[in-house]
Amino acid sequence: MSTIVRSAHELAASAGRELGATDWLTVEQTRIDAFAEATGDRQWIHVDVERARAGPFGGTIAHGYLLLSLVSLFLPQLLEVCSATMGINYGCDRVRFPSAVRAGARIRGRGEIVSAEAVTGGVQVKIRVTIEVEGSDKPGCVADTLSRWLFQ
Fold this sequence. Notes:
Layout: E1 3-5, H1 8-12, E2 18-21, E3 25-26, H2 29-39, H3 44-47, H4 49-53, H5 64-69, H6 71-78, E4 79-81, E5 86-96, E6 106-119, E7 122-133, E8 141-150
Parallel strand pairs: 1-4
Antiparallel strand pairs: 2-6, 3-6, 5-8, 6-7, 7-8
């Protein structure tokens, strides 16, 4: 369930707000293979199931950048800004991949608004999205994203 923000003023005052967690998502090998095909990153630890079984992770793992791309799936599940005319991805301040995510693992996004500041026409928000891995103490990805919401 997403956190709902109804105004630019409310969004600008939201630093420190916990956004909760998304539903779980299984990282299927087919998603990993499709990402490898789309990006050209076909390293064996991602796509060669037989070889990866004997490798350092005991099986294939998701690309770090695949996990980062899933932040775009998780953000709208974490935060909805009702009165904005447009929201844009402005970038990331910091991205880390603390642990490998095996194919078949379940992940979810957990969000926190780190900062919020007024910019021309809107509000820029830094949201830390932590991609949790079910059964693991370490996240698969932690990304400090920058989003801008514009208002009329």
